[in-house]
Design goal:
Elements (H helix, E strand, L loop, with lengths): L1 E7 L26 H17 L7 E7 L7 H7 L2 H5 L3 E12 L3 E3 L2 E4 L1 E10 L3 E2 L9 H11 L8 E2 L2 E2 L1 E9 L5 E2 L2 E10 L2 H22 L2 E10 L2 E3 L1 H15 L3 E3 L10 H5 L4 E9 L20 H17 L1
Parallel strand pairs: 1-2, 1-3, 3-16, 4-15
Antiparallel strand pairs: 4-16, 5-14, 6-12, 6-13, 7-11, 8-9, 10-12
Length: about 325
Amino acid sequence: RTVMLRADIDALPIHEESGVDFHSRFDGRMHACGHDAHMAIMIGVARTLIDRIWDVNGKYLFVFQPAEEIVEGAKAMIARGLLDNHRPDVVIGLHIASFIESGTVITKPGLLWAGSDAFDVKFSGPGGHGGMMGRRGNVLAAQAFFIERLHTVVEGLEQDGVQCHTTVGNIASDGAWNIVPRGVLVQGSLRTFNASLREQALDRLHDLLHEAESEFEVKANVDLVHGTVPLMNEPNVTRTVLEVGEELIGDRASLLGRPLTVSDDFAEFLTRIPGCYFMLGARPAGDVPPAHHSPGFRIDEAALPVGVKVLAGAASRLAAE
């Protein structure tokens, strides 16, 4: 069988403050989610399998995927014939996790991570003098109203005991201390666990925007970009990955109890090929480290060989099945 192994390779538009000696050489470009570690692990897996070339069966397809952070890379590679040209039978991959104990492997069959949508909401009004404008036509008041109530879009929408999630990541306007602007942009994301929950959340999002329009006499337009579907692991492949993990690292390989509200376009491959995505714990010693997607993000590099061993072992086992 042909086993596809995927590593994402893109960085984020963040000024790095990690303090590590291998920090980014490009200001405003940082591997703040561990994709550099994914590449290093994948190269290690390739070397491991090459060293064992006379003892392994099957074929191996190594995919280094761009544009995961903007949730376009997997779809683009599929559209350009990746799966048609190579016809893999199974796909596996991992994601480093600085919030999980270093050297552990965690996954689960079925729903692992949420699907995602990105939204751009633009509030438009007449603009005006900061000393004379009240609520009417005030786009900043409207966006504050929207953000304060955004949590209601996902209230009660849950699966396996985990509520769907929404958040704002950027607000932009051309106002000043004494200028209420004519427009304000609010950018954020919506994370849902299935198509029904997504539809309900989007209906609520539009209802909230209509409410803001009525309350503040502004216009609200939303541009929605469907990022990726929920990430669903195939049970049999996941069982094999966990079995290999248990053989190699014992009880440090374990089942995740509930899905997480993060997203990854590895899910696009899983809608077409049976496979498994797992998390590799890499929490540095000491205090809780800065989060993924933050300037201080860092990992415990000692976890990388564990990722190499488990991925290589799972790939060779799956290829021989």
